[in-house]
Amino acid sequence: MTKELLEKYLNNRCTSQEVEEIILWMQQQSFFSESKKLGEIDWQHFKEDDVVSDEKLDSLLDKIHHKLNIEEPRTVQIKNNRLLHWISKAAAVILIPVLAYLLYTISENNRLTNQITTVTIDSLEVIAPVGSRTVVELSDGSVVHLNYGSRLKYPQNFLGESRGVALTGEGYFEVAHNPDKPFVVNTGRINIRALGTVFNVNAYSESNCISTTLIKGKVIVEKTKNNGNIETIKELIPSQHVEYEKNTGVVRSSLEQVEKYIAWKDGKLVFENESIDQVAKKLSRMFNVEIQVDKGVKEYKYTVTFVDEPLFQILELLSVATPINYRALPRIKNPDGTFSKQRILIERNKQSQTKLN
């Protein structure tokens, strides 16, 4: 054991293998005279005259090791408060890594013994940046496509009775089949449970709607009630699209062509008789802008498909199809020196309005 490795642990920079090494050292070797020398070096550096003697330090360390290695774990827990009281007094003047390590071990006994397990199941997070899509392959072989601005949290390895992930945004899931361990997508209020299937989930935090579209296989849409019980909302069949409204709890279901719900993973933007408000929301999310729609053009709807088109090209094509005009508004400089999002106003084309009158 080295002083550098102990300091690395205290600063939370150890690998899982190094954590295992430190735990083994503490359980089996920390009371050896060679290990005490690590503390004595720093003690000589930090000690002050007439505060505490070397003999008292040595006695203190012996008492700590006695508590850690001789008594039963339950006894240590019962006497933790008294032990921590006199250790904390000594720690005020004994600034040594070994003592700090031992103090941390006593006060965080349960967490320490589970350090290695915690590292192995630590969750990861993948974020699809604005303007691009991301593909993630999970440890079970499942593949997830993430749409613009989406986040997926998942464990390095799936433990327990299910394979759980958390989604914010939109994801297209190709789930590896495992009848013994269902795959569960958590969106905050709604869970989508599957065994091995292909489906799409749209759950952006700013949207009032959470939707699920099943391509093949079978999924179950569930809701966690206030008492913790699970309520089945809908069991989907292929080509079925289900929407859940957050504020009302209303559920809508339909059988239709699913292409418009999943075309985004192939770089397509599909609108089928969608209002200009819906178009503006998708474009805002896709290009990280704020699009404001004037009430004078609310009635316009669009059926069109765009393939990897830039924002202003899309707006130009929309203005050709309907009598609208768009313009970029000046950005506002924030107090920290950054600028606000690009804002775009869509309004009725004034020339077209004049002709109508």
How would you summarize this macromolecular structure in one to three sentences?
With 357 residues, this protein is an alpha+beta fold. It is built from 13 helices and 18 strands.
Mind explaining what this structure looks like?
With 357 residues, the chain is of the alpha+beta class. It has three domains: 116 residues, no CATH class; 135 residues, Jelly Rolls (Sandwich); 90 residues, Phage tail protein beta-alpha-beta fold (3-Layer(bab) Sandwich), CATH 3.55.50.30. Helix content is 35%, strand content 30%. It is built from 13 helices and 18 strands. The strands form three sheets. Strands 1, 2, 3, 4, 5, 6, 7, 8, 9, 10, 11, 12 and 13 form a 13-stranded mixed beta sheet that branches. It has a three-stranded mixed beta sheet with strand order 15-18-17. Strands 14-16 form a two-stranded antiparallel sheet. Helix 1 crosses helix 7, helix 2 runs antiparallel to helix 9 and helix 6 packs antiparallel against helix 7. It is globular, with a radius of gyration of 30 Å. About 14% of the residues have low confidence.
Question: Which descriptors apply to this entry?
Answer:
357 residues, alpha+beta, Jelly Rolls, Phage tail protein beta-alpha-beta fold, 30% strand
